[in-house]
Design a protein that fits this description.
- The complex is a heterodimer of chains A (117) and B (114).
- With 117 residues, chain A is mainly β.
- Chain A has one domain: Immunoglobulins (Immunoglobulin-like), CATH 2.60.40.
- Helices cover 3% and strands 47% of the residues of chain A.
- Chain A has one helix and eleven strands, in the order βββββββββαββ.
- Chain A is globular, with a radius of gyration of 13 Å.
- In chain B, strands 2, 5, 6, 10, 11 and 12 form a six-stranded mixed sheet that branches. Chain B has a four-stranded antiparallel sheet with strand order 3-9-8-7, with no helix packed on it.
- Chain B has 114 residues and is an all-beta fold.
- Helices cover 0% and strands 52% of the residues of chain B.
- Chain B is globular.
- Classes of the chains: A mainly beta (117), B mainly beta (114).
- The interface between A and B is medium-sized, with 32 and 25 residues.
Chain lengths: 117, 114
């Protein structure tokens, strides 16, 4: 597609349930990022993939969060045993180069809004 | 560690008047700095970037920002606001070393009054 696609756009779930959020990056982009944006805050880094491997997962808050990118394209963010504090907008972004510091341009999707009741 | 502080959570201007959104950064090294904009129900979009070239950076839609090392500032300006500029604006610094992690400020919500 033309841009980064995220599904679902909205997800409401109950505390304790398992959730998967999908990201389809721009074709050919090797780098993929997940960020989380809580209400009234800026996006916070979760994890970054270069190809199929997670190059930096230092932002994942705990072991309930996991992300995969098995074929180096689509990525899935998985959240186990969801808690009310997980409610946020989960943003995916992709980039054609790993050296974001030189270009600065991440291409963001519109996000998946997760609400945990 | 790098960080950015956006000094105003909300800014309101009248259409046709100048815009100033303030950002201060903290970095041990010469940083890469950016401004991103987020319109309602839209993805984040890069407005402009500073990467140690010219200190006055021009971006899209008439926005510009000036890197001032002595003041550790990277304020975003526009001479004349348009209604379509109403959005949330994020000042961003790139983490040194990793080169892949962007650190966002808390955002400034810009309202433009007719």
């Amino acid at each position: 597609g033309a841009g980064v696609s995220q599904t679902p756009s909205n997800k409401v779930t109950e505390k304790g349930k398992y959730v998967e959020l999908r990201c389809d990056p721009i074709s050919g982009h090797t780098a993929l990022y997940w960020y989380r944006q809580s209400l009234g805050q800026g996006p916070e880094f979760l994890i970054y993939f270069q190809g199929t491997g997670a190059a930096d997962d230092s932002g994942l808050p705990n072991d309930r969060f996991f992300a995969v990118r098995p074929e180096g394209s689509v990525s899935t963010l998985k959240i186990q045993r969801t808690e009310r504090g997980d409610s946020a907008v989960y943003l995916c972004a992709s980039s054609p180069t790993v050296r974001v510091g030189n270009t600065g341009e991440l291409f963001f999707g519109e996000g998946s809004r997760l609400t945990v009741l | 560690a790098q960080s950015v502080t956006q000094l105003d959570s909300h800014v309101s201007v009248s259409e046709g008047t100048p815009v100033l959104l303030r950002c201060n950064y903290s970095s041990s090294y010469s940083p890469s700095l950016f401004w991103y904009v987020q319109h309602p129900n839209k993805g984040l979009q890069l407005l402009l970037k500073y990467t140690s070239a010219a200190t006055l950076v021009k971006g899209i839609n008439g926005f510009e920002a000036e890197f001032k090392k002595s003041e550790t500032s990277f304020h975003l300006t526009k001479p004349s606001a348009h209604m379509s500029d109403a959005a949330e604006y994020f000042c961003v610094v790139s983490e040194i070393g990793a080169t892949n992690k962007l650190i966002f400020g808390t955002g400034t919500l810009l309202a433009v009054q007719p």
